[in-house]
From TrEMBL:
Gene that this polypeptide is encoded by: trpA
Assembly with partners or alone: Tetramer of two alpha and two beta chains.
Amino-acid biosynthesis as UniProt keyword: yes
UniProt entry keywords in alphabetical sequence: Amino-acid biosynthesis, Aromatic amino acid biosynthesis, Lyase, Tryptophan biosynthesis
The protein's role, per its UniProt record: The alpha subunit is responsible for the aldol cleavage of indoleglycerol phosphate to indole and glyceraldehyde 3-phosphate.
InterPro entries: Aldolase_TIM (IPR013785), RibuloseP-bd_barrel (IPR011060), Trp_synthase_alpha_AS (IPR018204), Trp_synthase_suA (IPR002028)
Protein name as catalogued: Tryptophan synthase alpha chain
Catalytic activity, as annotated: (1S,2R)-1-C-(indol-3-yl)glycerol 3-phosphate + L-serine = D-glyceraldehyde 3-phosphate + L-tryptophan + H2O
Pfam families cross-referenced by the UniProt entry: Trp_syntA (PF00290)
Length: 261
């Protein structure tokens, strides 16, 4: 794949397609890469791969449980990248991790290793905007799109800076707090989506609390698409196989496409 993450998503969006990025914790099961294939086959536009970390400050109980399971199985960054390098899917792969894992090497070495494995994007949610410069430069040097998060509490000036500096897409949070399934969509989320769309032509995707197909479609109406994580990991932790996870992603894909008509 020669296109950047951002170029790929913009091209997909240009067809009138709401964007769908499902998540899987790398190493959560021995066959976790089969989940990536199932997502891609089910209509994902990119896949987010969570690198498990022992103290994930923004992850709710479901993602924490998935991370704990992966760490207990001996998952490491090196093992993840070795497995990622074997994947053959036609959508971009995005790493989601924490600063502690990034700085175990230099940021330049970390970004180079991600790109060498075939990853096209990177999300580091605990890296604040004021301190992201070195990481952003290292990612750009390796052709890796560094995705920044936008919170409902952010000022318009801060949102403008986030949209200018983010690459790939802008990750809009539906609420303040940790990841996890939610019920109703807060009005602040819809307002955030509208504000971000008014500031940038870069894709805007909602994440944190996207719990079911109808909710995904509703959120996508205020942005360009959604990231779905905890709802999928809850199913996996409860015993769902890759085929079943793919079927659930396909149901979200259908809801998104119907909502766009």
């Amino acid at each position: 794949m020669t296109e950047s993450l951002e170029e790929f998503l913009i091209a997909r969006r240009g067809t009138g397609r709401p964007l769908l990025v499902p998540y899987v914790t790398a190493g959560v099961t021995p066959g976790w890469t089969d989940v990536v294939h199932a997502y891609a086959d089910a209509g994902a536009d990119a896949v987010e791969l969570g690198f498990p970390f022992s103290d994930p400050m923004l992850d709710g109980v479901t993602i924490q449980e998935a991370s704990d399971r992966a760490i207990a199985a001996g998952t490491t960054v090196r093992k993840i990248l070795e497995e990622v390098a074997t994947l053959d899917v036609d959508v971009p792969l995005i790493a989601m991790t924490y600063s502690n894992l990034v700085v175990q090497q230099s940021t330049a070495e970390f970004c180079a290793a991600l790109t060498a494995s075939g990853l096209r994007g990177l999300i580091v949610p605990d890296s604040p905007l004021e301190e992201v410069g070195e990481l952003a430069d290292a990612a750009a040097a390796e052709g890796l799109d560094l995705v920044l998060l936008a919170a409902p509490s952010s000022s318009r000036a801060r949102l403008r800076e986030i949209t200018e500096r983010s690459r790939g897409f802008v990750y809009a949070l539906t609420h303040m707090g940790t990841t996890g399934e939610r019920g109703e969509i807060p009005e602040q989320a819809a307002r955030l989506g509208r504000e971000l769309k008014g500031l940038t032509d870069r894709p805007v995707l909602f994440g944190f609390g996207v719990s079911h197909p109808a909710q995904a479609a509703e959120l996508a109406g205020h942005a360009d698409g959604v990231v779905v994580a905890s709802a999928l990991m809850r199913k996996l932790l409860d015993g769902a196989r890759p085929r079943e996870l793919g079927e659930y992603v396909a149901s979200i894909r259908r809801a998104l496409d119907q909502g766009a008509r």
